[in-house]
Amino acid sequence: SSGINAEYGQATEYLGPEEIFKGELDEALTKIKFALNVLEKFKEDFEDKRTNLKEYFKDRDVVPWEFASGLVFPRYNCFIDRVRQLQDLIETSIEFNRLEKIEI
To answer: Alpha-carbon distance 12 to 35, whole Å?
Structure first.
């Protein structure tokens, strides 16, 4: 839980409104994509460790993690969804800016 909270806190700080909405949209999109990659990698690593737990403790019996990932990540998943929505918003804004520059 502390690892999840740390990831969540760092991403929140990294993607703060002053960081995203005061700069260039392309830079904001780069930051958002980077943050999403880190957040998703954390979940992948969690699942990898969970699946391969026996590999880390070869010298003893291991009790597998029986709890569902949904119990561990509900807030985290909601945060990732909000970051994806932010990504969609920024990508849409970039597209509108490109359309404004087109002359007919």
So the answer is: 9
